[in-house]
Model the fold of this input.
Amino acid sequence: MKYVSTRGNAAPVSGAEAIIAGIAPDGGLYLPESWPQFALVEQEGLCHQNYARLAKEILVRFFPEWPDEALEQAVAAAYDPKRWSSPEIVPLRSLDTGLHVMELWHGPTSAFKDLALQLLPHLLVNSLRVVGDKRDVVILVATSGDTGKAALEGFRDVPGTRIMVFYPENGVSAIQRLQMVTQEGNNTRVVAVQGNFDDAQTGVKKIFTDPAWLRLLEEHNLTFSSANSINWGRLVPQIVYNFSAYFALVRSGKLAMGEKVNFVVPTGNFGNILAAYLARGMGLPVHRLICASNRNKVLTDLFRTGVYDRRREFYTTNSPSMDILISSNLERLLFLLSGKNPEMVRGWMADLQEKGYYTLDATTRERLTEVFWGGWADEESTLAAIRQAYREFGYVMDTHTAVGLKVYRDYLRESGDKHHTILAATANPFKFNRAVATAVLPPEKLQTQDEFLLLRELAAATGLSVPEGLRGLDSRPVRHNTVVAPDRMGAAVADWLGLK
Ligand SMILES: *Cc1c(COP(=O)(O)O)cnc(C)c1O
Done:
């Protein structure tokens, strides 16, 4: 199977090459030339497989030329129940008759990113083997908080790889920050950027496509790759849980095989919701995809007006992993909606870069709103949604998931849609303990500045236990304390690699 760039100025490559490269040389993103299809009879067969098995069946369709046992080993290692706090990997919990939560946060770093980043290192190492590439890989990551830690855990001490993570200095939660700066491993480095996530992401993309950098790496027998969702190897694993959640609902007897469902996805870089759209393209019975944003609601506005406009204030919110104004993976969706027209994509992306906005044509816009519905939640209504879910269902959710719940309620009010709906729970509530505690604990408990006391208070009040990866973070030594300006990110990479 061949992969093509959304911008049409790069030669088609194999799946392995797409994963190694991360981003296409023309600045575009890779997508497969055609979509594997799962007919309903096949889905009936897959419905009772465990998570690792299902992942393998989906992966093999995208990487048909890979040795079978390599895929078997990769999924067995990544989805080993010993590494997850639920044997199902992604358990589904029904809150009421029509609303079901797929819990994507049972991995080692407590956010949905683990589902892809526990697997990606195996896919990458295997890709290098398949193409006979002997170079060491340098992974650069820009993170709004969760990708960074998940990627560090996935790649730590993986032979032949080094990983460097850039996070916005003031744009992550206290727990997220501690998770990253205490990272262990011989091949890891974490750097704070004096800017927001978009600054970090733009800086990383610039380094990736800078010919001088590429030459320098070449000379040292190194190559860059990405663990961000611009990398195709991040997206394929994310397709899997949309199927697995659907199958869990069928197995529960609440849904008939073939009946359509909605997915609600708290969205930032558009990777998670794109994976749901891709699953739909492969035959998963999906009615609507509901895209939930926080106050940085550039996507909501796109769905309502047809204009993507990043010329606006950037807000730091209580759902920091969605504080993003440039949603990279939207480019993949636009490519597909435009009928795979790279000229149109190039035009939009050039407008975005030069003018700060672009306007969709009527046809693309119509195709977009046929499937997607967008809404947003401010910080107050996010906390209100946490409180409400706790009161009504006794269910504790994190701020990102709560943005999804609030937007789902708005959607129901507007549409009256009766389809079963699956809400993506993207992080463990303890990861955003302060905001969650603000929603569910009495005010006097919030006085403390001690994040770990707050974790314990939250656990005591809700009866939930603090995830293993977050316990004891306060006693681990800080191993990373470099801070750089956005225009010094390249220098930080050079410094770390010893390439000055
Ligand atoms: C990354 C992240 C999101 C946003 O996902 P995208 O794929 O970037 O749209 C939402 N919630 C949490 C907790 C995240 O870590």
User: Anything to note?
Assistant: The chain has a mean pLDDT of 96. The radius of gyration is 21 Å. The pocket of pyridoxal-5'-phosphate is lined by residues 111, 113, 146, 229, 266-272, 321-322, 400, 426-427 (CB under 6 Å).
